[in-house]
Protein 1
Amino acid sequence: MIEDIDSNVKLTLSKSQSIFDVVQRLEPKVDKIDSKVMDIDLRTRIIRTIQRVDKQDYHISDVHNDRVYVYSKQEVAFELKKENDKCELMGGYLLELDDEAEKLYTLDLAKKIGGDARFALGGNDVATEGTWVYYHSKKPVPSDVQWLPGEPNNHAAGENCMAFRMTHNGLNDFPCGQNARFICELPLAP
Ligand SMILES: [Ca+2]
Ligand SMILES: [Ca+2]
């Protein structure tokens, strides 16, 4: 590509046209190359992001809003730190829903991937009962993110972790430490 430009420049200059003509002639070519470079950059970032994911252990989503979502295939006794560390090794963190749209996208995928399996996220009210924040960013769970009706209810001995309850297709609080699969959010690598 670079050689092409180079020969184009020489050819054009040899015709001794004005600089303005040269620029005008090359502009569409440069635009085309620019968009190719951006395309290659995106592909590279996707590859860099997903090559850290062990495909034996995780399902990977398509690219969505400049990130991919990774769903564990196995259930674990879900602990925020332990599972978030696994996400960090892949360059991400336990899923943080920024809005209802992100919930619907990740919930829909959870259904397709895991059926009725429980999938845990990064939300929790461990520090202050009833105040829901995300483990990685410490940001509050936005109020437009909808829980299932009647949830979070801090049932029985207490429920301080957040999961998709797939039998009811929505968000529920459940006891940290119980069995769940989990979801990591991986922003595309720089
Ligand atoms: Ca709670
Ligand atoms: Ca609950």
Protein 2
Amino acid sequence: MQTETAHKRVDIHRNDTVKVLSGKDKGKQGRVLRVFPDKGTVLVEHVMMVKKHMRPTQRSKGGVAEQESPVSLSKVQLICPNCNQPARIGHKIHGDHKVRVCKKCDGDIGGKKSARG
Ligand SMILES: [Zn+2]
């Protein structure tokens, strides 16, 4: 019997484009700003904007600023950069590293990892 690891594998990376599947921003698409694998959430540009009240400082007058708030990974779907459609993600082994591929068009989905680490 196979045992699943406690952590969900996160197939969405920073700078991916995702589509929001539910909530007030349903249907919106945006770039992933941050991924929080532990929480299973992502921060998507211009999605789930919340108003933050800023205290006046010497540099600004304060007031209300808008800021993204995290969205559950289950509420977003990766958009394939090749076919521009919501993609089911598969994996392929290229040499000694795994790349993400779109199950629709079979194209590679980004996944550029920095050389470090
Ligand atoms: Zn595709």
Protein 3
Amino acid sequence: MRIVTANEIHLWLNQGHCIEQDGRGPKVVALADGRLLKIFRPRRRLWLSRLRPQARRFADNATKLNTLGIHTPEITDLGWFDKKLAASFCLYQPLPGETIDKIYRRERERFMALLPGLACFIRELHHKGIYFRSLHLGNILLLPEGGFGLIDFLDLRLKSSPLSRAMIRRNLKHLRNYLKRSCTEDFPWSKLLQLYAEAENDSPNRGK
Ligand SMILES: Nc1ncnc2c1ncn2[C@@H]1O[C@H](COP(=O)(O)OP(=O)(O)OP(=O)(O)O)[C@@H](O)[C@H]1O
Ligand SMILES: [Mg+2]
């Protein structure tokens, strides 16, 4: 994997616009040419991330999701951002669309109309054996042509068969916890579960 030069980092960070950051620095930067730069800084087990860089995992996950028919951004480049810290980066074209989170906060009626489709999409992920640990509204995009796509899929497990009931419960709990953390107590959670169950009943091969 290539190591990015100090000059390149300087240009990216100075000419780009930071979309997300934390105490350790920028996490997602919109570059001047329209691409997005995502920086991965592992907190633990740096040795593991050196052997298997997070940017590589991210790009591999994008390929696997695409193979399963799930839309993701197209990764165009990856490399080391700071090898000593096992920090790596990916460059990608943004997936056109808006996060569900934004729609939920700004256009409640539109969000309610999307809920059945969203329940089906989550069910589709589970049915395809996709266990997306960061399942939440900020990581699901509504695509301009309709349908949904995923971003932020570093933590992913893929099973060769539909997820078991226990895994589905655990995954839905991630979403529930996210909603609690982001103070969305009025979220139509029971409705989503009901729609999910309906989608499940319609599906030919149900999870065990
Ligand atoms: N491929 C993409 N297409 C469109 N917008 C994107 C894309 N990737 C990131 N974004 C925007 O950047 C925001 C943050 O991106 P992302 O979810 O990848 O990082 P993060 O949430 O900061 O990461 P983490 O969940 O690891 O803390 C998203 O909510 C979205 O607005
Ligand atoms: Mg995110």
